[in-house]
Design a protein that fits this description.
Belongs to the acyltransferase 3 family. This is Acyltransferase 3 domain-containing protein. Its main location: membrane. It holds the Pfam family Acyl_transf_3. Keywords: Membrane, Transmembrane, Transmembrane helix. The structure is a single chain. The protein is an all-alpha fold and 365 residues long. The protein has one domain. It is 75% helix and 0% strand. Helix 1 packs parallel to helix 13, helix 2 runs parallel beside helix 5 and helix 2 packs across helix 11. The longest helix has 50 residues. The protein is globular.
Length: 365
């Protein structure tokens, strides 16, 4: 089985672009009362659900052999830490001072020391983090911790799976039976630990489990799964505007993401998916694009205003340029800062391990 699935990167790139287009649409609607593409990308928030399902798939696909092996806990959490925090902190180093230099930039609580600590560590709070898009990273970190916990039940996968089952069952029961108004009034930690977003991660893990299962023949229905997921996705998009029925985002976007991802990886495993370089590049840079997309569009809007570029190009071309520039900026951040930073940190860790081994040898000698 292929260790690298390019289709996952394609989906990452598309999801990040959806979120970017949502923020571009929303910001220009507020600032200029302009409906970009008739608000077509108003449903772009579903890119976050796609990211969550993808995360569930990738973590299970890569680390399934580690389940029940407590020795894998430390390297797993270390890898996740390196993947999430360093470049996030780089962006925060730029954004955080703005709330002190320009008080009108926020609502006041952003300069509170405890709030800053929570934002930097991605600890839940009643407010969005300093970098508002990082709210989703809080849920990513929770999923990593939960998955990490099941690694510690050494050689007893039944215990590991029981922990997951209990967590997800509680999440599903609250999701199905608790009225929204009561849910909104719950303690912040209850809403965080048993948030419906957990179901997105579970759907991704289920897709990965079905994909790697040797006994499972569902991979033969990759085209059908992809088609079904796209039809569901299209209906949810149409329903976003027509409001035929009220549907929770997990049902509207999480479930079709499950079918689309399973369909694509199944087709790729059979060599029925061609390489799309631009999507692969965007997929690699998707995290960086996601981190800066909101502040980038907001900043570019101010630049375009100052230079009177809206009068020259018009709103449609100007917004499109903002989107393209943000995608390029995200790619630059990824290849110039994120990748070298991750490589540097990994090098430090390897060097530290090497010194530790040498010290042990000297002690034995």
């Amino acid at each position: 089985m292929k260790s690298t699935l390019y289709s996952l990167q394609y989906i990452r790139g598309i999801a990040a672009t959806f979120v970017l287009l949502l923020h571009a649409t929303s910001l220009f609607k507020v600032y200029h009362h302009y409906s970009y593409l008739n608000n077509f990308f108003r449903a772009g928030y579903m890119g976050v659900d796609i990211f969550f399902v993808l995360s569930g798939f990738i973590i299970y696909f890569v680390h399934r052999p580690d389940i029940g092996n407590k020795e894998k806990l430390k390297p797993f959490l270390l890898k996740r830490f390196i993947r999430v925090y360093p470049v996030y902190w780089v962006v925060l180093l730029v954004v955080t001072p703005l709330y002190f230099l320009i008080p009108s930039f926020g609502e006041g609580f952003e300069t509170n020391p405890m709030f800053i600590i929570k934002s930097w560590l991605l600890i839940p709070d009643i407010h969005f983090p300093i970098l508002n898009v990082a709210w989703s990273l809080r849920h990513e970190v929770l999923f990593y911790i939960i998955f990490g916990l099941i690694l510690i039940f050494n050689k007893n996968r039944k215990v590991s799976y029981s922990v997951i089952a209990l967590w997800l069952t509680t999440t599903c029961l609250l999701f199905i039976f608790m009225p929204r108004d009561i849910w909104e009034g719950q303690n912040i930690w209850i809403k965080f630990l048993f948030n419906p977003y957990n179901i997105d991660f579970a759907l991704g893990s289920l897709a990965a489990h079905l994909f790697v299962s040797k006994e499972n023949k569902l991979k033969n229905f990759g085209k059908l799964s992809l088609f079904f997921g796209l039809i569901w996705f299209a209906f949810s998009w149409y329903n976003q505007f027509s409001k035929i029925i009220e549907v929770h985002r997990i049902i509207a976007w999480g479930i079709p993401a499950f079918f689309i991802i399973f369909g694509l990886v199944s087709l790729e495993s059979k060599g029925k998916l061609r390489h799309i370089n631009i999507l692969f590049i965007l997929g690699n840079a998707s995290y960086s694009i996601y981190l800066i997309n909101y502040i980038s569009v907001s900043f570019l809007n101010k630049i375009f205003n100052y230079l009177n570029l809206y009068d020259i190009f018009g709103y449609f071309i100007s917004i499109t340029l903002c989107v393209i520039i943000t995608l390029i900026a995200g790619c630059i951040l990824h290849y110039v800062i994120e990748m070298p930073l991750i490589k540097f940190i990994k090098g430090l860790i390897l060097e530290r391990k090497s010194k530790g081994k040498n010290n042990k040898k000297e002690a034995v000698a």
